[in-house]
Amino acid sequence: MTSHPSPTGMPALDDLLAGLHVVSIPMRVRFRGVEVREAALLHGPSGWGEFSPFLEYQPPEASRWLSAAIEAAYGAWPAPRRTHVPVNATVPAVAPDRVPGVLARFDGATTAKVKVAERGQSVQDDVDRVAAVRDALGPAGRIRVDANGGWSVQQATEALRRLSAYGLEYAEQPCASVEELRDLRVALARSGIDVLVAADESIRKAEDPIRVARLEAADLVVVKVAPLGGVHRALAVVEACRLPAVVSSALDTSVGMSAGVALAAALPDLDHACGLGTVALLEGDVVDPPLEPRGGVLPVGRVQADESLLERWAAPADRVRWWRERVSSCHALLDDATVIP
Ligand SMILES: O=C(O)CCC(=O)C1=CC=C[C@@H](O)[C@@H]1C(=O)O
Ligand SMILES: [Mg+2]
Q: How far is the CA of 115 from the centre of ligand 2 (A)?
């Protein structure tokens, strides 16, 4: 029997598990070490929600992703201010000759985010990849790079000196810590290197996501719905940081992506293309048609998971068990106050 959500909105674990589907979808291109993307999809009275923290995340961090999934399936998103949102192409740390093929998957995107500082690669690899992206986009295209905290302040200064020759919109999380980001901003200014700094991990993995703004450690903030615990919470972070925001995703299926689109649609200002095009990096999806950019934009609105696609990509029984246990340990960490504002 299915019980109703409590008056404050926290669904019972049995309800979550009753509406749970686990999928396992290969990546077209390896991205952040992921070759197969696993996700748990929840179905509730408001629609579909996605719970897909990366496999190595422990329950305290992963439980925020569950809050976001519960908000989507049981709560309401804030009112949209626009009907479509602009999307960037996302270029994994591939060889330059693969760049045109990757970009071709992001129809109409005029901004590209390029992964750099990949372990085992050199700055020259980054320069060659960014040069290939500039070639493909032409002079009017925008290019941002994402180092995922892979550089020291000195390495970042040197790498960004070289990469800035190709014209950069900003560098995302060039160094790991908030203090390094702050020091890097000073170093770049002193060296006359004109590159803005954006914080990603320093927001989404931080105990205190506002600290980066207090320390003046970034020019922009990257916000992602799932790691921040939902659309409402991500909006609150943007408001508190008082910095321009870029909405991005977490390698989600179209279900998780639609929550990112809801955030981008609700932001008072949206001056940057959103990193919400990565369904294109997956071999398949759970929504038909998938939420992939057309003409460089995505439509705002709810999506429905398709039963036959859920079956097509259904994860093996041992992985389903693993995800059900994960939902259960994360649910145990949440209380009414942590979900559904
Ligand atoms: O922002 C984008 O263009 C796409 C999303 C993206 O880059 C990421 C998604 C998931 C995990 C992260 O390592 C990565 C990021 O660091 O921003
Ligand atoms: Mg990033």
A: 8
- 172 phi and psi, to 5 degrees? -90, 130
Is residue 200 in contact with ligand 1, taking CB distance under 6 Å?
A: yes
Kindly report the CATH class assigned to 13-76+307-338.
Answer: alpha beta
User: 52-71: buried (b, 16+ CB within 10 Å) or exposed (e) per residue?
Assistant: bbbeebeeeebbbbbbbbbb
| Rounded distance between C-alpha atoms, residue 213 and residue 222, angstroms | 12
* Residue labelled with tokens 């998971």: 305
**Residues forming beta bridges with residue 115, ordered by sequence position:** 146
Phi-psi region of 173 (alpha: psi -120 to 50; beta: other; left: phi over 0): left
Residue ranges of the chain assigned to CATH 3.30.390.10 = 13-76+307-338
- Taking only the tens of pLDDT, the chain with its 341 residues reads 334 344 446 899 999 999 899 999 999 988 888 999 999 999 999 999 999 999 999 999 999 999 999 999 999 999 999 999 999 999 999 999 999 999 999 999 999 999 999 999 999 999 999 999 999 999 999 999 999 999 999 999 999 999 999 999 999 999 999 999 999 999 999 999 999 999 999 999 998 999 999 999 999 999 999 999 999 999 999 999 999 999 999 999 999 999 999 999 999 999 999 999 999 999 999 999 999 999 999 999 999 999 999 999 999 999 999 999 999 999 999 986 665 55
Residue ranges, CATH 3.20.20.120, the chain: 84-299
For 84-299, give the CATH class.
Answer: alpha beta
β-strands 111-115, 220-224: how paired?
Answer: unpaired
Q: Known binder of ligand: residue 146?
A: yes
Catalytically active residues are 115, 224
Beta bridge partners of 21: 41
